[in-house]
Amino acid sequence: MVTSLQATTTLHNGVKMPWFGLGVFQVDDGEEVINSVKWALEHGYKSIDTAAIYKNEEGVGQAIKESGVPREELFITSKVWNGDQGYEETLKAFDTTLEKLGLEYLDLYLIHWPVPAQNKYKETWKAMEVLYKAGKIRAIGVSNFKEHHLDDLISEAEIVPMVNQVEYHPDLQQTSLHEFCKKHQIQLEAWSPLKQGQILADETITSIAKNHGKTTAQVVLRWDLQNGVVTIPKSVKKHRIHENADIFDFELTEEEMKMISQINKEERIGPDPDHFDKR
């Protein structure tokens, strides 16, 4: 059982990754992202997840600097964007990300989308392997990869991805992908774990929340963790950042876990990775 905000899972290369963190997708650079990250770090969060395309890496870096939390205690993730895929392009994009964050290394770097239409993710991965071996990234992984994308990548990769960050919530449970990742020791990580709030009115989850004296959001986030999925809910409100992390003093029963699993509709809120090719 994951019992604290600082609890970690061990990736297949031995690096420890927090089970819980703050995502900053659609958080404005400047004051909004600086405040969000600082509130999270002050509350005890250790993991922050950003990306080049979020255009807020500079604000994240400033918040880290101002927080006073020692760098080695933090787990910072960013991602290479679709238009920057390719070997040389990825090396350059990574340098830009580090510069914006004001950091000397990243804890985790991900390929943001497979973009099969441009078919560059293997070249991108080779660049990431080089950066990893050079000690500039502690762990490398992918985001939004389905089984066939992973199969294709692994067939030529020297290093198996350590993480696959995907859309994951009670309406989209991607069970076969999760099993594939377990088989290959790839840690699954959830983005949009609350389906941008759309899952919170679900009657089953609401009734379970009442049983525990918790919010529906807290129940869903607890469900993630008990399923062995790293989760990074986003919020720009201080009380919500605190509330999201208040999930370590209760446990869902096996029956409750099963009830939530039965909600599954395999319904996405984001794009299908097979067809998303925005550059």
UniProtKB/TrEMBL annotation:
GO terms for molecular function: oxidoreductase activity, acting on the CH-OH group of donors, NAD or NADP as acceptor. PROSITE patterns: ALDOKETO_REDUCTASE_2 (PS00062), ALDOKETO_REDUCTASE_3 (PS00063). Keywords: NADP, Oxidoreductase. Substrate binds at H112. It comes from the Bacteria. The active site is at Y54. Residues 26-264 form the NADP-dependent oxidoreductase domain. The keyword Oxidoreductase applies. CDD domains: AKR_AKR5G1-3. Belongs to the aldo/keto reductase family. This is Aldo/keto reductase. It comes from Gracilibacillus oryzae.
